[in-house]
Amino acid sequence: MTRTVYVNGEYLPETEAKVSIFDRGFLMADAVYEVTSVLDGKLIDFDGHAVRLKRSLDELEMAEPCSQQELLEIHRKLVDLNGIVAGLVYLQVTRGSDGDRDFVFPAADTPPSLVLFTQSKPSLADSPESKRGAKIISIEDIRWGRRDIKTGQLLYPSMGKMMAKKAGCDDAWMIEDGYVTEGTSNNAYFVKNGKIVTRPLSNDILHGITRKAVLRLAQEAQMEVEERLFTIDEAKTADEAFTTSASAFVMPVVEIDGATLGDGTPGPIARRLREIYLDEARKTAI
Ligand code: PLP
What we know:
Blueprint: E1 4-7, E2 10-13, H1 24-28, E3 31-39, E4 42-43, H2 46-59, H3 68-81, E5 87-94, E6 113-120, H4 128-132, E7 134-140, H5 155-166, E8 171-176, E9 179-183, E10 187-192, E11 195-198, H6 209-220, E12 224-227, H7 232-236, E13 240-245, E14 249-256, E15 259-260, H8 268-284
Parallel strand pairs: 7-8, 7-14, 11-12
Antiparallel strand pairs: 1-2, 1-6, 3-4, 3-5, 5-6, 8-9, 10-11, 10-13, 13-14, 14-15
């Protein structure tokens, strides 16, 4: 089925949507993006994603393509037009194009490009991976130093995911200066003696929208949370581990670098957090 997508003010069949070959998103990954989940036809934590998008744009001195209210309307219309019950809305803003390639940014009044499309994923909240738990490898983190900005520079995370697949695993956690930063497309946690440990926010990791919600819900459920640097060896010898992201919610981790965690099945804290998070997400979706 041909999707209807949004490009710079127009709703079009995906086969007719076009962006210039000079667009800086295409030539230089000069772009930021957001991925918002849809459950029961409604958007999960839309405000959180809109606020982070604004922050990414501000950090890169990129113009806002439209208001938050207009963005919400575009999201809702695409969900509606494409009949999405469960899935994702991908949004990308680029610095646009002034019709040529140059390292220097185009004039400040060059219109940004705004592209959105949907991905239908009927089993989003019920994926087989969430039931069996993910297997993780560790790799070096060689990304740039502003990982708090959600840019379109995803080549190394994609390579990390491929390294994991080649090793018969699901995903990779990245390590810098001896400490785990995050997963290729998620934030990373381990649990030891009931305490949830995750890296504190800084420019080294993406400030996950799901991370924020899950840490708040964990505290409300009287779970102990510690934000500190941690090593892969601590995670390998933990009772359990998990990741969080808008597209996979809370994903249990059952193996790290070949070491089995607990009994090799999703741990009780990860399972509980997934349940609490999904429950709250559905209740507050708009
Ligand atoms: N870290 C990285 C590198 C990511 O790419 C993502 C999501 O794409 C996350 C963390 C999780 O962020 P969120 O919960 O907002 O999806």
